[in-house]
Structures are given as structure tokens and as C-alpha cells.
Design goal:
Oligomer: heterotrimer
Chains: A mainly alpha (about 500), B mainly alpha (about 325), C mainly alpha (about 220)
Helix content of chain A: over 70%
Strand order of the largest sheet of chain A: 1-2
Low-confidence stretches of chain A: none
Number of domains of chain C: 1
Distance between the termini of chain A: 24 Å
Order of helices and strands of chain A: HHEEHHHHHHHHHHHHHHHHH
Structural class of chain A: mainly alpha
Largest sheet of chain C: none
Order of helices and strands of chain C: HHHHHHH
Largest interface: A-C, 53 and 49 residues
Number of strands of chain A: 2
Mean pLDDT of chain C: 83
Radius of gyration of chain C: 18 Å
């Protein structure tokens, strides 16, 4: 494919959400808002497909004079942004309209919602394709700023609280990451000397092995803590359950499915540079340790939840922790497992939040104890919840099970990285298996209680067909489909990305 | 020997002469900031002369401490003043002591003043003394630490050496961070020790708030004159210390008349500048409650401590 | 184009960073919110002066832009926003403190030491103008972080966040003579938007909770 078409594809990638965001502020009818939204996200997905094909063909690509850098890993992330974004847009078609019809929000506020949603998409795309680590930081901080009002969108007490908490905690965390970026720049300036491009990934990768290991270690710690806050790793996770509970369902799906993935991507990018100068056991040890702690703690918190949105929030922490363990162990199996886990989690979690949104609208409650008999009240959503729940509980044959198995295999074969673990110890595997068992039980118990049983009398049974069911069916189909086969292009893309992760 | 004698006389004269001027200057600045014309800058001189002419009244319940205190206070403060380089980097009493002696000479005066406040047996005096005890016990560690932090950068506890070294250095001080911390701490300490706003208000006789004024409430006539003069002297000593330790440039390093002239002139400029600054600060802030004073002095202590730590970390 | 002799120049930069740190302590010790805002503005002025000095000493021109932006955004615009917020909210003081002033100052002192210890190994490597600035920058970041935890008022938390940003900017200026311009502009934009958003939030919080004390934000619990 020619450079010219690639330039167009990349411009479309950036312009689509930007223009759609601008238009959203001007349009007045909700119908046109949705049309703009779907057009924009459709363009985004199309551009991504073009880019992914080109990346598969010729490796990485740069555009606009090295401002943009896209390789297989960023293509995977773009793929997640596009697909989950598309599903969310379809879901919003019915979800937001119903909120307006019920008078929860004024029709005017739809403009703000779509504007912020597009800015959110734009900042995530920029964070994924930016060549400069500095621009990436700016974009990730901007995701915080764009999403905080989306989280507080209902303007209830609790949502304001969640939004504020999210803003403060993530801004602070991200500030620490900026210190890491400064240190990274400090180290690379000494080697590169060129002021303007010394933060570019393309430049850094060439000289990474000459960078000073002391500075890089320090830089990575700050970057990891900063972006780790955004991923929601324990102990920086406390904003996450509140934000996911209070955010409108499509926003929660985007946060859980995409934003976390983008933050993981930022960590992986930095790691790719640091690992060339510092023994990989250092970064791997950090990732695996915090991943394991997050996984273990979140698994037990799942047991304690009586709010189904918080349940999914903790399950997010758990899965992100597991993916981190995978990346931390590294190697072909660990990295592929981690990456595949990210993708599957994004689909399963957005499906779960779509179902949760439907349930919330019908039952007017997020308490698990007040929701019973979904099979009679909302049969389709019940099926979606069941599929998502089983996938998230890592039940075979779902793909999350296979990626978890890959991570556990990697752990078994090479053990936890880092100086502080004794080689050959089985302890981490035992912890991992036990905790996944705990999470499995907790999740299934809660979801079974919601799906079956006798519905409360004041709830009207029956589920009306709406556009919002399209993404639910599609995601469900994808999740079930992934049990058996991965489409060959996707398979290639994931493999290319994980090869990239193994040897930068 | 002769030099030393001349220096002692000169420094004594300068200190005694400038002290009331500084007090007058601060009052003038405050008056101006309150949109008053205020008394003339030289008013404190007239006050002192007037007080010296009046016959003192001494309560019959007091002991010798009451009458001895003004002399002890005055003498100890003046002696402290002679330990500080004023317009020349060598100090007259260089042989007799260093910073530590300075701190304890000042503390001696405060101690006797507290005793005298208790001695008369009036409620106010006792109150003033107990408050002064709180403030003094909190300022002293901060003061010692801040001076140590400065002494460490110069490598000596002798003030004359410190000032001499810093004044002759090319460029500014070697490590700005410890110096700056110590300087900030010293400013707070000076404000607290000399009873200025926000710790104490020298212009009030409100029984709820006064500290220094409460202790000297029983004094009159020449005793009061001595105490007031000593208070002015103490303020001047602190200002001199701050000015010369943190910015000693222009100070005379030899006994030549030209150098001495420049030294004296820069000294007057520096000290009056600080006095104006204090006038501004006093107008800007309200007096703190007594229990908030601990916060302020705690801040001074921590700053001084940080100055010390900085020194070691930077050298480390 | 070193117009001044390097020792004096680097000492002045050190002095500037030390002044920043000192204002940091003042902010920690200050209870009145409007005084905190003033101190933050003062700190930003010091920051701009230090940055200008670095620009002058190194001859890198885009730092001047950053210094100007610091003055405009952090010393004028953001303090105004914060003052407006304080006026509207009718809160003037941080009444309840989790940790009292001297204790917070001591903790901050420890943080400064930690910052020095952390940066010690990497300081000799760079083409640093100064020895201390990077360490002081990290110290300011950590103190901002601590203030955010230790204080409850939304406005104070915002100021703490901005103090952290100041520390980061100092670090970038001192260690690397400024980031690439595009990054710096982006950071300024983010900070400005963050301040605006926080302003909007405090208004909404006031409307909903009748208070901006974040201690009231405790409805979301496990």
C-alpha cells in the first residue's frame, strides 16, 4: 500500500473523532448526533483495518514526519479501541435516547456527552499512535480530563464523588509518570543530543542500549506507578470501582475495555525501551509483582461485593493484574497470553457492562440482592450476562481461559522474574490458581443468583428489541466464536505484536 | 590592643545609637501603612531621655531581682551585640565567645526578665512570664539549629569567621538551599524573640495577648528606659545577625577609615531595609493565637533542621 | 553563550529552586486558602524566573516561551480561577487537618531527604547545570503528593496538584533544559483544563453537598 493512502488512513484516524466532536456541539437532534457518532466510529474502524493490513505487510509505519508511529502492538490497541468503541456507539443509540426520554438528562446534554465521548476516543487514539513519549503522556492525561465528566455525567452525589476521586487520583498518578518521562528524556538527551526528537520511540529504540541504566530504572518506576494508577493496579485502584459504578454503562464499558488497555500499552512501550538497557528481570519483576498482588486482592474483593457493577470493576482489576503477570514473565507465551487476555477482557467486560446497563435501567438498582429472575424479565440481557460472566470467570472453553492458561504455563516454565524470588518456587502458581478459583466461585455465585430465581413482583417482565441489542449479540457471538477459532488476520496481528513484545 | 579598644567603643556607640532609631523607623513605617503620619523617627530617643529623668517607682513587695534585672538585661544584650560583626567583620569580643555564647547571653536576659515579671507578684507579670517561657523554649532550638546550619557551611561557629569567609567569597554562598532554609528560620526566630507581630504585639497593652509588655508592666523611670533600650538593642542584634550572616557584602574587613565608612553606610542601609520589611510584615499579618504560635515556631524549627540536613546531603 | 560565569549562574538556579521549595513548605504550613493560592502564584513566579535564568544561561530559546506561559497560566489565570472558587464557596480556612502543621513539615523534610537519596545516583551523569535542582524538583513533587493526601479541602488538593506540576516543570527545566516544545505546550494545556475542570467540580460539589470538604465524599464505600 502506498504511503499516500497510509497518510490518509492516519489522518482519518485522527480527524474522524475530532470532527465528530466538533459537530456534536453544533447538532441539535439526537438522531443526527448518533449518525455522526456512528459515521465517525465507522471511519475509525475502516482506517484501522487499512493500517493493520499495512502493518502486517511491512512492519511498522511512521507518518507526518515521524510524529506518528504505528506498529503491530499499537494496531492491536487500535483494534480494541475501534471495535469496543463501535459496540459502545451502537449501544448508546438506544441507551442514551432512553435516558433522554425518561427525563434523566436534558436533550441538550447529549451534545456534551457526545463531544466528550469523541474527545475521549481522540485522546486514546493519540496516546496509541504518538511517536513521542511526551505526547503520549499529554494524551493520557487528557483522557483523564475528558472522562471525568463522563463519569460524573448523571450529576448525582455519588457520581460527582466518583468523578472527583477519579480526577484527583489519576491526575496525581499521571503527574508521577511525567517525572518518569522527564527522566527518560534526560537519559536520552545525553546520547542523542537532539532536542526535539529525543523522546521519539523510533529514536529511543535505536539508542536504547546506550542509555544509562540507573536513570532508566528510576524513570520506569515512576512511569509504572503513574500509568499503573490508570490501569487500576493495587494499591492505586481505589478510584476504579467507584468510577465504573457511577459512569453511564457505555462509558463504563469504554473505561474497562479500552482505557485500561491503553494505559497498559503505555507501560509496555516504556518497558520496551527500558528493557534494552536494564536486565528485563527488573521491569518484569515490577509488572509481575504488582500484577500478582492486584490479581490476588481483587479476587477476594469479588467475594465481598453486593453491587454488580463493582463486581465487574474488581473483576477488571483482577484481569488486568493477570495480564500484567503475563507481560511481566515475558517470553513468547507470557506476552501472547497477556495480549490475548487484554483483547478478550475488553470484549467480555464491555458485554458485561452493556448487560449491567440494561439490568440497571429495568431494576433501578445495582444491588445484587434486588436482582433475580433475569431469565424471565430480560432474557437477552440474561444470556449476555451469563456469557460475559462465564468468560470473565475464565470458564473453559472461553478464550479468557486459554489466555489464563498460557500465562500460568509461562509462570510454571520460567517462574516469576526479579531478584526477590527464588528460582523454582511454586508459590506464585499456587497463589494464582487459588485466587482464580476464588474469583471463579465468587463471580459465578453472584451471577447465577441474578440470572435465575423469582423476579420481584414490581418489575415488568419482557425485553423489547432495540438497536442496543445489536452490539450485545455481536460481542456475545465474538466471545463464543473466539472459543474455537481466531480469524487468521487477527491471529497474525496478535502474533506479530507479541513477537514485538518479546524482542523489541 | 588599641584597635580592639577602639572597636569596642565604636561598636558600642553604633549599637546604642542605632537601636532606638530602628524602633522609631518600624513605628513610622507602620503608621504610614495605617495612613497616619506617626511620630518622628527620632521619637524613641526623646522617650528614653524622658524616662531617664523620671523617678522610678518600685513596688514594696519586690526583691533585688526586680531592680537588678534592667541592668543585667541591658548589659547582657549589649555584650551579645559585641559578639556580632556589625560594620566590621572582626568582632570586639572575638576572644570571648562564639554563636553559642551569643544565644545564651540573650537567653540570660530573657531569663531575668521572666523572673522580674514574676517578682512583682502581679497577675499580668506572671502571665507574661509564663507565655514568654513557652515562646523562648520553642525559639531557642530553632535558633541554635539555624545558626548551626549556617555555621556548618562556613566551617566555624565563630561569627566573625563566618561573616569574613562569606564576605570574601567570590559569588554567592556555596550552597543556597541550606542557607535559604536557615535564613527563613532565623527570620521567624527573630520575630518571635523580639516580640513582634504575629507572635507578640509591642504596641498593645491588651491583657489577653501581651507577652513582653506584660512582663515589664511594673517598671517605670530609668528601669523602664533601660528595659526598652535593651529591647531595641535585641531587635537590632537580630537584624544585624540576619543581615550580616546572609548578606555580608560591603562589610569592612580591615581598619582603614574608607572601608569602615563603607561598612557603616552599608550596615545602616541593610538594617533599615530589614526594619522597613518588619514594619510591612507587622502590618500585613494579624497576631496569632498563642496556641498557633507553636505552629509557626515548629515551622522555624523544621526549616532549620532541613537546612542542616541539606548541608549533609549535599556534602554527603 | 555563557554570559555569566557558570558557578554564579548555577548557584542562582539553585537559589531559585530552593525558593520554590521554601514556598512549598509555606503552602504546607499555611491554613488560609487564599494565602495558599497567593503562595502558589509566588511559587510560579519563582519558577518562571528560574526557567528564564536557565534559558539565559543555556541560550535555549523555547524555555522563554515556557517561562512566559508559566507566568500567564500559573501565576495569573489559575490563581484567579481559584480565588473565584474560594470567593464563591465562602471557605477561607483548612479547619481540620489530619496531620498538624509541624508534623506535616517534618514529613515533608523526610520527603526531601528521600528525594535527595533517590536522585543521588543519577545526578553525576547528566550535563546538569546544577546539582540540586533535579532533587529539589522531585522533592516538590513528593511534597505536593503528600499535601494532596493530608489536606481535605478540594481547593487545597487542587493547589497541591498544581504544586506537583510546578515541581515537574522545574525538573524538566533543570535536568533537560525543557521538554520538546510540543510536549510542554500539551502539558500546559492539560494543567489549565484540569484547573478549569476542578473549578467546575468544586461548584457542583458545593451545590450538591453544601460543602467542598472532601471528607463528605464518603458515600462510596466497600
Amino acid at each position: 500500500m502506498s504511503d499516500f493512502t497510509m497518510t490518509i488512513a492516519v489522518s482519518l484516524l485522527l480527524l474522524a473523532p475530532l470532527l465528530a466532536g466538533g459537530l456534536s456541539l453544533l447538532l441539535s437532534s439526537s438522531r443526527w448526533l448518533h449518525v455522526t457518532n456512528l459515521t465517525s466510529i465507522g471511519t475509525l474502524v475502516a482506517a484501522e483495518v487499512m493500517i493493520a493490513r499495512s502493518v502486517l505487510g511491512q512492519g511498522s509505519l511512521t507518518a507526518f514526519g515521524e510524529i506518528i508511529y504505528i506498529d503491530a502492538l499499537s494496531s492491536v490497541i487500535l483494534f480494541i479501541i475501534g471495535t469496543v468503541g463501535l459496540a459502545c456507539s451502537l449501544y448508546m443509540r438506544s441507551y442514551m435516547d432512553e435516558q433522554v426520554a425518561r427525563g434523566v438528562i436534558a436533550p441538550k446534554r447529549l451534545n456534551l456527552f457526545f463531544f466528550l465521548f469523541h474527545m475521549f476516543l481522540l485522546t486514546m487514539v493519540v496516546a496509541t499512535v504518538a511517536n513521542s513519549l511526551g505526547v503520549q503522556w499529554v494524551a493520557i492525561e487528557a483522557t483523564t480530563l475528558t472522562t471525568t465528566f463522563l463519569i460524573a455525567f448523571w450529576r448525582r452525589r455519588e457520581s460527582l464523588e466518583a468523578g472527583w476521586k477519579y480526577l484527583i487520583l489519576c491526575s496525581v498518578g499521571i503527574s508521577l509518570a511525567l517525572f518518569g518521562v522527564v527522566l527518560m528524556y534526560y537519559s536520552s538527551l545525553r546520547v542523542l543530543g537532539d532536542v526535539s526528537s529525543a523522546l521519539n520511540i523510533t529514536q529511543l529504540q535505536q539508542v536504547a542500549s546506550q542509555l544509562d541504566p540507573h536513570i532508566l530504572k528510576l524513570a520506569f518506576v515512576f512511569l509504572f506507578v503513574g500509568y499503573g494508577t490508570k490501569v487500576g493496579l493495587v494499591p492505586m485502584h481505589s478510584w476504579l470501582p467507584d468510577a465504573y459504578t457511577e459512569a453511564p454503562a457505555p462509558v463504563a464499558a469504554m473505561l474497562a475495555g479500552v482505557l485500561e488497555t491503553v494505559a497498559v500499552y503505555a507501560i509496555l512501550r516504556c518497558r520496551g525501551i527500558v528493557d534494552q538497557a536494564v536486565p528485563p528481570a527488573f521491569t518484569g519483576g515490577l509488572l509481575a509483582f504488582f500484577g500478582l498482588v492486584s490479581f490476588a486482592l481483587a479476587a477476594f474483593f469479588i467475594l465481598l461485593q453486593h453491587n454488580y457493577k463493582r463486581l465487574f470493576a474488581y473483576s477488571s482489576i483482577e484481569h488486568m493484574g493477570l495480564a500484567m503477570v503475563g507481560f511481566g514473565i515475558g517470553g513468547p507465551i507470557g506476552n501472547f497470553g497477556g495480549l490475548f487476555h487484554l483483547v478478550n477482557h475488553a470484549f467480555a467486560k464491555s458485554l458485561a457492562f452493556f448487560a449491567a446497563g440494561n439490568i440497571h435501567r429495568r431494576f433501578k438498582s445495582v444491588e445484587i440482592d434486588e436482582v433475580h429472575g433475569l431469565t424471565t424479565v430480560l432474557p437477552w440481557s440474561a444470556l449476555a450476562l451469563l456469557i460475559a460472566g462465564l468468560a470473565l470467570a475464565t470458564l473453559p472453553p472461553f478464550a479468557l481461559f486459554s489466555s489464563e492458561m498460557q500465562i500460568i504455563t509461562a509462570l510454571g516454565s520460567s517462574g516469576l522474574p526479579g531478584e526477590w524470588t527464588q528460582p523454582g518456587t511454586r508459590f506464585p502458581i499456587v497463589v494464582l490458581l487459588l485466587c482464580s478459583l476464588v474469583a471463579f466461585g465468587g463471580l459465578l455465585y453472584r451471577i447465577a443468583g441474578m440470572v435465575w430465581g423469582v423476579a420481584p413482583k414490581d418489575i415488568v417482565p419482557g425485553e423489547q428489541w432495540s438497536v442496543g441489542h445489536v452490539p450485545i449479540i455481536l460481542l456475545g457471538a465474538v466471545l463464543v466464536g473466539f472459543c474455537w477459532a481466531l480469524p487468521p488476520p487477527l491471529q497474525q496481528l496478535f502474533e506479530a505484536a507479541s513477537t514485538l513484545l518479546v524482542n523489541w | 590592643m588599641l584597635y580592639a579598644f577602639v572597636l569596642i567603643v565604636m561598636q558600642t556607640v553604633v549599637l546604642l545609637a542605632v537601636a532606638p532609631l530602628i524602633v522609631g523607623l518600624i513605628r513610622k513605617v507602620k503608621a504610614r501603612l495605617q495612613c497616619r503620619r506617626g511620630a518622628a523617627v527620632f521619637q524613641p530617643y526623646a522617650d528614653l531621655i524622658k524616662l531617664f529623668r523620671k523617678q522610678p517607682v518600685v513596688s514594696s513587695t519586690t526583691s533585688w531581682i526586680f531592680t537588678a534585672t534592667p541592668y543585667i538585661l541591658f548589659a547582657s544584650t549589649l555584650a551579645a551585640g559585641l559578639l556580632v560583626p556589625v560594620f566590621m567583620s572582626t568582632t570586639p569580643l572575638n576572644f570571648a565567645g562564639n554563636i553559642i555564647a551569643l544565644v545564651y547571653l540573650l537567653a540570660l536576659g530573657t531569663f531575668f526578665l521572666m523572673l522580674a515579671g514574676l517578682d512583682a507578684g502581679s497577675a499580668f507579670g506572671g502571665m507574661g512570664s509564663s507565655r514568654e517561657a513557652i515562646v523562648a523554649s520553642l525559639t531557642e532550638p530553632a535558633m541554635m539549629l539555624s545558626i548551626f546550619a549556617i555555621a556548618l557551611t562556613a566551617g566555624s561557629t565563630n561569627l566573625s569567621t563566618i561573616v569574613h569567609k562569606t564576605a570574601l567569597l567570590e559569588g554567592i554562598v556555596t550552597d543556597p538551599s541550606p542557607h535559604l532554609m536557615a535564613f527563613a528560620a532565623l527570620v521567624i526566630v527573630a520575630i518571635a524573640e523580639t516580640g513582634r507581630v504575629p507572635v507578640d504585639n509591642p504596641a498593645t497593652h491588651l491583657e489577653l495577648t501581651m507577652i513582653h509588655e506584660a512582663m515589664i508592666l511594673e517598671y517605670s523611670g530609668r528601669y523602664l528606659a533601660l528595659v526598652e533600650w535593651a529591647a531595641g538593642l535585641k531587635l537590632l542584634v537580630f537584624l544585624t545577625l540576619i543581615a550580616n550572616v546572609s548578606a555580608p557584602w560591603g562589610i569592612a574587613t580591615s581598619m582603614e577609615p574608607a572601608a569602615l565608612g563603607i561598612g557603616l553606610a552599608t550596615y545602616l542601609v541593610k538594617v533599615s531595609g530589614l526594619a522597613v520589611l518588619i514594619g510591612f510584615l507587622e502590618s500585613m499579618f494579624a497576631k496569632l493565637r498563642l496556641f498557633r504560635v507553636t505552629d509557626l515556631l515548629g515551622t522555624a524549627f523544621v526549616l532549620a533542621l532541613l537546612g542542616l540536613v541539606f548541608f549533609y546531603v549535599l556534602r554527603g | 553563550m555563557p554570559l555569566m560565569t557558570p558557578p554564579i549562574g548555577s548557584q542562582l538556579v539553585d537559589l531559585g529552586s530552593a525558593l520554590l521549595l521554601l514556598t512549598c513548605f509555606a503552602i504546607v504550613a499555611q491554613r488560609r486558602l487564599s494565602a495558599c493560592v497567593d503562595l502558589f502564584a509566588l511559587q510560579s513566579v519563582f519558577l518562571a524566573l528560574t526557567a528564564t535564568l536557565v534559558a539565559f544561561l543555556t541560550g535555549i530559546h523555547h524555555i522563554y516561551i515556557a517561562a512566559t506561559l508559566t507566568i500567564v497560566i500559573k501565576a495569573i489565570v489559575i490563581p484567579r480561577i481559584l480565588k473565584k472558587v474560594i470567593e464563591r464557596l465562602n471557605v477561607s480556612r483548612e479547619l481540620v487537618m489530619h496531620i498538624n502543621v509541624p508534623a506535616s513539615l517534618l514529613i515533608c523534610g523526610v520527603l526531601v531527604m528521600i528525594a535527595f537519596l533517590i536522585t543521588q545516583p543519577i545526578i553525576p551523569f547528566g550535563h546538569l547545570l546544577t546539582r540540586d535542582s533535579l532533587a529539589i524538583a522531585l522533592a516538590i513533587v513528593l511534597i505536593g503528593f503528600f499535601t494532596m493526601i493530608a489536606r481535605q479541602k478540594a481547593v487545597t488538593q487542587m493547589i497541591a496538584f498544581l504544586v506537583m506540576e510546578n515541581g515537574l516543570f522545574l525538573g524538566a527545566t533543570a535536568a533537560t533544559y525543557g521538554m520538546p516544545l510540543i510536549v510542554e505546550l500539551g502539558v500546559f494545556f492539560d494543567v489549565l483544563v484540569a484547573a478549569l475542570i476542578a473549578g467546575i467540580y468544586t461548584n457542583r460539589l458545593q451545590d450538591t453537598f453544601d460543602s467542598v470538604d472532601t471528607a463528605h465524599l464518603s458515600e462510596l464505600k466497600e
